[in-house]
Specification:
By secondary structure, this protein is an alpha+beta fold. The chain has 2 helices and 2 strands; from the N terminus they run H-H-E-E. It is globular and about 30 Å long. It starts with a helix and ends with a strand.
């Protein structure tokens, strides 16, 4: 997960792919984290480990969750 976080951390998200064309909503960020972390885990673990779901917290009571 660290490479995914590092890619976005302290940067203007709208200037980074895929968010130059995709609105960085909590829903889209949740899917982005899901996809990128899944890809990384698949490579490192030869497909033995995967991501089940990702939840992004916007506020203390507002979240967006992505899962497949």
């Amino acid at each position: 997960m660290k490479p995914v976080v590092d890619y976005l951390d302290h940067k203007m998200i709208n200037d980074l792919e895929p968010f130059t064309v995709l609105n960085p909503t909590a829903e889209n960020l949740a899917k982005y984290f899901f996809d990128e972390c899944s890809r990384g885990l698949k490579q490192v673990t030869a497909g033995r480990v995967g991501v089940q779901q990702v939840t992004i917290w916007e506020t203390d009571t507002s979240t967006a969750t992505y899962y497949e």
